[in-house]
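[job 4471] stage=fold_predict status=RUNNING
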Amino acid sequence: MASSIDIDGATDTLSVAALAQRTSSVLQRLRDSARSARADERREPTFPIGKAAELVGRTPAAIREAEKDGRLPQPPRTQNNRRVGYTLAQLNDMRGLFGTRPWRTGTDPCSVIAVQNFKGGVGKSTLSVHLAQYLAIRGYRVALIDCDSQASATTLFGYVPDLDLTEDDTLYPFLRHDDIESLDYALRKTHFDGLELIPANLRLFQSEYEIAARMARGQA
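[job 4471] inference complete, writing structure tokens
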């Protein structure tokens, strides 16, 4: 079987196998490009000592004193003996030392914030990601759950959803199986300390139809 393609009056006959090979080559180049774009992996944010002190709730002098007496590790320095910016993980260590990290007791319920809208393109993913990162910077432990099969939030954390992830890495198994009671299986670390992600990919779209079918049968 052959396919005849007419371009500006010139006819080129290609076999289906040749077309498939060319298509595979294009897809591979796209995948390689995506990998290359992620070569500079997402980096944890860093903060100068003044901003670190503000976020931790102590003065720069208090941080320097804790480093001097060994309660905090000495920060890395540049060749000019200037402090390298503190990572978010280091900020959270400071909060632990000074007792300023937000916390809740074992009996306090988690706060759940849902960002939703039936209209597409209104900034749901952008708002969700920025809110999650803001709360993590403030010292909260955050789990960001990407419920959108377009997986924009997942992509913003450095994943190529349909290349790096399978449906078993998403909410899909939890939505399909009544015997799964925890989402721990899907949690992934991110480049923000204290912020974990439950990613999404295109296969999650199928769950919308499955849930609707279960509701129609009175099973949900």
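[job 4471] summary: The chain is about 40% helix and 10% strand.
[job 4471] exit 0
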